[in-house]
């Protein structure tokens, strides 16, 4: 791949363009908002000038509702040798594209639907980074009709972005992302909505649990309306299952208020059931490097809000010979301090705790 055209200079399109330009590919940027294309170009993602002729790969990075028309327009105009999109829904746009191309002399051989499983709460070119996709799954949905050239160019793009290619059927992909992305986003938003009119005294008690659950609720609603509108069926099916669990859990909690001992026991059983099923589901979430999740222990260190605190902790952990597997930070309410949780292998807890205490850190496990 020597040349590419990115249509849609948002977070995903600009991040892909940054990755390609860093590998020496000449990238042309196009967006209906000229300022976005200019901004992306100013960040080093390519040029906002139109290509002189067909490029090797056209990357369509527009919302799902506009994918089919954008790809069809690019194909009819002959803008590239191969075409792919990066939208989060695959089945519907592909069927719509097939319908749009009827009678145009074009077919789907040069097209491949893809979806990089990466993103941020913020959107737009200013949020883009060249390493956004590094180590992340990038789904490819080829069919028997897909040209080898189109597939190879898509794989080259994934390689340049240092992502991990995963081949799936388009409709299977849509059901999967409904489960792991679209439905959780709506549930996160529903939980966050409870905070909108909550008393200030209650909101001040927010800790890492509520922050974890509501983090993705900060995303742009307009973007998510586009996504959910393109995949409503699978998401609605999953929410119906969640709704049934909620109804059962509400009944169980009400039973715990009963004066009848039998009813209370049934309530305990109902709550325990959903919690245990939650435990079982959580253990299936891939852990480090995509492997089965491992159990780590937390070494908790009190830190102040000053430059260099985290760097010092990491350096001291290195001297102790203990690898930090994950890091979480909990900020103290109303204070310039907080706790950093260093997740380590169980056998490293004692060694790290002793080393940090010897260097003056306030540590608890």
UniProtKB/TrEMBL annotation:
Pathway it works in:
Amino-acid biosynthesis; L-tyrosine biosynthesis; (4-hydroxyphenyl)pyruvate from prephenate (NAD(+) route): step 1/1
Chemical reaction(s) catalysed: prephenate + NAD(+) = 3-(4-hydroxyphenyl)pyruvate + CO2 + NADH
Give the residues annotated as coiled coil.
239-266
Q: Where is the ACT domain?
A: 298-365
Name the UniProt key words of this record, in alphabetical order. Amino-acid biosynthesis, Aromatic amino acid biosynthesis, Coiled coil, NAD, Oxidoreductase, Tyrosine biosynthesis
Protein's UniProt keywords contain NAD: yes
Q: Which InterPro entries match?
A: 6-PGluconate_DH-like_C_sf, ACT-like_dom_sf, ACT_dom, NAD(P)-bd_dom_sf, PDH_C, PDH_N, Preph/Arog_dehydrog, Prephen_DH
User: Does the entry feature the keyword S-adenosyl-L-methionine, yes or no?
Assistant: no
Question: What are the GO MF terms of this UniProt record?
Answer: prephenate dehydrogenase (NAD+) activity
Q: Which residues form the Prephenate/arogenate dehydrogenase domain?
A: 2-286
PROSITE patterns in UniProt:
ACT, PDH_ADH
EC assignment: 1.3.1.12
Tell me the protein family, please.
Belongs to the prephenate/arogenate dehydrogenase family.
Q: What is this protein called?
A: Prephenate dehydrogenase
Give the organism, scientific name: Streptomyces fragilis
